[in-house]
Design brief:
Blueprint: E1 2-7, H1 12-27, E2 35-40, H2 55-63, H3 67-83, H4 99-110, H5 114-126, H6 135-144, H7 149-156, H8 162-174, E3 182-185, E4 189-192, H9 197-209
Length: 213
């Protein structure tokens, strides 16, 4: 059974959703038969390689809210992360363009390491405060999960996998996914948002029961 997941590595709810989905998958009796595919989605394709300045101010402007509301959003996300077993240090995050990170995720998929790199990128951004748009940082993180340095440098130095990222994003639009995380179970059931684990488990069970013998 195939599961496609659209998400961005600077999206905190994507990290929370990943953990909730993993918790559901751990309870799913047929988890060995589930093939997870990570799909590209940029929350801000026009973001600079590295975003400096007032993070909360940027968040407030983006969503049309005041600073106090932005702070409340942070507290809500941090608590949701804690409940999912994550140490989200939002105040220390360094935002930036994620296009190169997504291209490296396609390289990782070619080596069977997409899940490993996805986790490494999320932890680097949300817990370690790494500048996720920096090429040198991305190369180091890719090395942490065993990707060949020469191939990583080739990706970061050119436009390899750019078309694959854009294709993922077009498909997301075609499916009506205007936000992430967005899960598609067995090319049939769509689940939007970081839903509770029970929701994911119910959809997995239903999709499995409807598979042809």
């Amino acid at each position: 059974m195939r599961v496609d997941i659209w998400s961005d590595v600077v999206c905190p709810w994507c990290y929370v959703g990943k953990r909730r989905f993993e918790a559901a998958l751990a309870r799913f009796p047929h988890r060995a038969g589930v093939d997870v595919h990570w799909r590209s989605f940029e929350l801000d394709p026009r973001a600079p390689r590295r975003r400096d300045g007032d993070r909360l101010g940027h968040l407030a402007a983006k969503y049309g809210i005041d600073r106090e509301q932005a702070e409340a959003m942070d507290r809500c996300i941090t608590e949701a992360g804690r409940e999912a077993g994550l140490d989200l240090r939002l105040a220390a995050t360094q935002g930036g363009n994620t296009f190169d990170a997504h291209r490296l995720l396609h390289l990782a998929a070619a080596h069977g390491r997409a899940g490993d790199l996805k986790e490494r990128l999320l932890r680097a951004h949300f817990t370690e405060g790494e500048p996720i748009g920096d090429a040198a940082v991305l190369a180091r993180l890719a090395g942490d999960v065993g990707l060949p340095a020469a191939e990583v440098d080739d990706v970061l130095g050119g436009d390899r996998y750019a078309d694959a990222v854009r294709a993922d994003e077009r498909l997301a639009r075609d499916l009506g996914a205007g936000a992430v995380p967005f899960f598609v179970i067995d090319e049939t059931y769509g689940v939007a948002g970081a839903q509770p684990s029970e929701v994911f488990l119910n959809v997995l069970e239903r999709a499995w029961s409807e598979q042809p013998d």
